[in-house]
Structure formats: structure tokens, C-alpha cells
Amino acid sequence: MTTNDTNTKKSIRQKHILDLDELNRSDIELIFENTDSMMEVLNRGIRKVPALRGKTIITLFYESSTRTRVSFEQAGKILSADVINVSSDGSSSKKGESLYNTALTLQAMKADAIVIRHQHSGAACFLAQQMDSTSIINAGDGMHAHPTQSLLDLYTIKKNLGTISSKKVVIVGDLLYSRVARSNLWGLTTMGANIVLCGPNTLLPQDFLDSRIHETNHPFREIQIEENIDTALKDADVVMALRLQSERQKAGHLPSLREYSRRFGITSERLKIAKPDAIVMHPGPMNEGVEIESDAAHGPQSVIESQVTTGVAIRMAILYDLITGNHSEKEL
Ligand code: CP
Q1: Ligand 1, from 62, 68, 156, 291: best to mutate by most atoms within 8 Å of Cβ?
Q2: How far is Cα 230 from Cα 260, in angstroms, rounded to an integer?
Q3: Which of 1, 6, 10, 192 has its CA 20 to 30 A from that of 176?
Q4: Residue 169 β-bridge partners
Q5: Does 105 map to a domain?
Q6: Are 195 and 214 members of one domain?
Q7: What is the pLDDT of residues 70-113, one digit of tens each?
Q8: Is 66 near ligand 1, meaning CB less than 6 Å away?
Q9: Ligand 1 within 6 A of 325 CB?
């Protein structure tokens, strides 16, 4: 990526990134193309380009995070933006300031982009509706969506398997509370994957999936649900384990963690049921010994660490695109 080719890059239509239901296949492929350039920058000895010099990015995190917050900060800094991190603990939200007034304040300080993580579903969409000049990037809102995680997951699949289309992707675990899974259902469906969801009945998003029963053209009508993990894993190309979201779960979803791990935990032994070249993914943070065993998490089929690296490049591509793109068709 040179200063020259940053000038000629195409950009997606959106001013904000809120969830993957707003991105079509061309948008996603364009983000992948730009991510390839960002990956080249990331792999250099000196990781710095002037693409966003003079621009300001604010990360506003009301929930804890390691991967997402640090990768957005790193992405912004590699592109030479000024990155300011705000957490709920040290901000005036502790004095009762509303999310809306906090965002207006940051916009008044000329933030070009606000990256927000919030415990309430819909927080990022709400802010996007209020902003005139600042792009909003959803870094995870409640159990609703985590679009940049999904984009990095899609990119990882494409880079490892050559394509996403027609690949069997098995998503295992806490599907009810996982915003990663929800965004991935949109992204994987758009890119033509065959999706199988596997988990205990109590952790399946029945409310989310019911609509496919009533709408013949609903994009999720082809998604399969399989309660037996050994059946689900047969011929899988991708095995994606999800974290048990203990902070969001109410009591009574699971009889015991040991039972859950025995029935749904991803182990190297279980991976033998999947295709020999299947990849193992996890958005992190992992509960090793619960949804995934160490032998699978750190084994030869695992791409979990490369997901983290890809996360930086994807976020570079998104920041660059939203901040420099010509979003004449501003859509929400
Ligand atoms: N995958 C993910 O969102 O991780 P963090 O909570 O560490 O950001």
C-alpha cells in the first residue's frame, strides 16, 4: 500500500459499520481487497503509513475487551491517526452522562470515527442515527452484533480455504447470547456458506431463527440445527467454537459445565469427524476446558491466533474506508 494506491481505493457505500446485514457480497469483497493491502503493511518491518494522518478515532468501551479494543487502537496508529481510548470507568458516564450526550461531545471534538462497545443491543445503531459527521463502528453491542469480528472470521475462512461459498461451517456453543454468531449468520449467508448450528436446546436462538419458518425468502431458511455434535461435525470445513457468555446468561441454561463440555466441547478427537483439512476457529476470549480443549485450541488445525492478526488488518481497512470514503449515499 503506497500513498498513491490509497488515493485510488474504492470504498463501501456505508458511513457506519453496524452489522453485516447492511453489507452485500460486493461490499464484503471490497473490504477483503482492502484488507489484503493492509495485511501487506502489517507484515512490514516498519508498520506505519500516513493514510489517516490528521484524523481522530475515539474508542468508547463500556464493556471489557482485549482483542477488539487493542486491534482498533493498533489499526488506527499504523494508519497514523490519533487514537483516543475512553472507557466507561474513567468517563463522565459515571457521573450520569447519557450515551447520547457522550457521543455528541466526542463529535463536537471532531472525532472522525467512534468505535463503540456497549452492553446494550442497539447502542451503536442509536448513535449512528444521531451523528452528522462522525462514523460509528459497532465493536459489539449486547447480544446483537459484532460485525468486525465477523468480517475477520470471513476473511480468515477465505484465506485458509480459498472460498467461503459452499463450505460447511459448524458453529458450536452458546448461540443464544453470541453477537459474533448473529453477525456471522448474516456474513456467512451472504457469502454462500452452508451453516450448521450446534448447541444445547436452551442456548439456541429460537426467536432469531423462527422468522425463517414464516418467510419463504428469508436468508436464514437454509440454516440447519443439529443437537448432536458428532453428526454436526461430519464433513465440516470450518469448526467455530463460541464462548459460553456467562456474563449474559441467566441461571438454568445448563445442568453443569462438565456436562456441557462433555457434550459440546471441541477436542482434537472430535475434530477427526470433520474434514482432514478443516480449520478450528474461536473469536476469543476462550474458556479452555469448557467450549474447547487446549489440544484443539492450539493444535495444527487451529487458526485462532491468525484470526487475531487478521483482526488488525480488517479494522485498518474499515477505518480507512469509513474515514476517507465518499459516502454520498449515506444509508442507515
Ligand atoms: N472477540 C472479541 O470481541 O474479543 P474481546 O472481547 O477481547 O474484544
Answers
A1: 68
A2: 14
A3: 192
A4: 195, 238
A5: yes
A6: yes
A7: 999 999 999 999 999 999 887 888 888 999 999 999 999 999 99
A8: yes
A9: no
136 and 162 housed in the same domain: no
**Please, which residues bridge with residue 61 across strands?**
87, 117
Cα–Cα dist 79/71, whole Å? 12
The reply to whether 53 and 189 lie within a common domain is: no
The region, left, alpha or beta by phi > 0 then psi within -120 to 50, assigned to residue 235 is left
Q: 90: CA distance to ligand 1 center in Å?
A: 20
| Cβ of 34 less than 6 Å from ligand 1 | no
Our answer on whether the CB atom of 149 is closer than 6 Å to any ligand 1 atom is: yes
Tell me, using a 6 A CB cutoff, whether residue 65 lines ligand 1: yes
| Mean pLDDT of the 280-300 span | 97
Indicate if 126 and 210 belong to the same structural domain.
Answer: no
Same-domain status, 129 and 264 = no
**Do residues 179 and 69 both lie within one domain?**
no
Residue 19 has pLDDT above 60, yes or no: yes
Q: Nearest Cα to 132, choosing from 153, 160, 106, 169? A: 106
CB 167 within 8 A of CB 194: yes
Q: How far apart are CA 97 and CA 91, in angstroms?
A: 9
Count: domains in the chain? 2
pLDDT > 70: percent of the chain: 91
What is the number of the ligand 1 atom nearest to the C-alpha of 117? 8
Residue 3: inside a domain, yes or no?
no
pLDDT-wise least confident of 255-264, 265-274, 299-308, 309-318? 255-264
pLDDT at 7: 47
Which residue range is the domain that position 256 belongs to?
147-307
Q: What is the pTM of this model?
A: 0.93
Q: Is 247 in the pocket of ligand 1 (CB under 6 A)?
A: no
